[in-house]
Structure to design on (201 residues):
């Protein structure tokens, strides 16, 4: 890496490390895992510094790298727990314990937990990371049009589940609880999209 590249990487780290760490912390159960994800993401950026976009597109590019690192992390966790899961099934533990983690959560949080992971992720990118539609396209590796369709459908499904939950017709399911434990994050609030980002609304 040249001196110029080294300076650019240092500037990139200074400008994005807090946002990237927040992105990772929200998606793992252990903060130490988030630190590992961020470190691996910046290692990729350091090795591929010439490929990192400029002019404000570096942040979503880093989120995209972190998303792939997280996917590898979660696959590793699933492999490590697969044997334990099979043993529990063989022992006949068919009734899961009460999930205290869902108690005290808002209706919006419960509705979000009931969606599939793709819907949850695109809504998080808008609400937590405050990304615009074209930035989300970079993170997810999709076209802007595909992001628009997915975001519209995810918001519709969230509204439908929220209606069911608030009416008492459909509490969060066991599957939703499993997804919530796997992502490891309990939302403290449902942030609104970044002010002024019209297309992500």
């Amino acid at each position: 890496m040249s001196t110029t590249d080294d300076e650019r990487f240092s500037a990139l780290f200074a400008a994005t490390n807090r946002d990237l760490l927040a992105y990772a912390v929200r998606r793992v159960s252990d903060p130490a895992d988030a630190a590992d994800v961020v470190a691996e993401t910046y290692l990729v950026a350091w090795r591929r510094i010439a490929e990192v976009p400029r002019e404000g597109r570096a942040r979503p590019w880093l989120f995209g790298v972190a998303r792939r690192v997280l996917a590898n992390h979660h696959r590793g966790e699933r492999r490590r727990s697969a044997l334990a899961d099979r043993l529990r099934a063989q022992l006949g533990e068919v009734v899961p314990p009460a999930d205290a983690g869902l108690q005290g959560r808002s209706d919006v949080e419960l509705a979000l937990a009931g969606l599939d992971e793709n819907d949850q992720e695109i809504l998080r990118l808008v609400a937590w990371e405050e990304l615009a539609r074209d930035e989300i396209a970079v993170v997810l590796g999709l076209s802007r049009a595909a992001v628009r369709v997915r975001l519209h459908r995810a918001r519709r499904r969230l509204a439908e589940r929220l209606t069911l939950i608030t009416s008492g017709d459909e509490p969060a399911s066991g599957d939703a609880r499993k997804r919530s434990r796997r992502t490891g994050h309990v939302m403290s609030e449902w942030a609104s999209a970044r002010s002024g980002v019209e297309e992500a609304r």
Summary: Residues 56 and 135 are 10 Å apart (CA to CA).
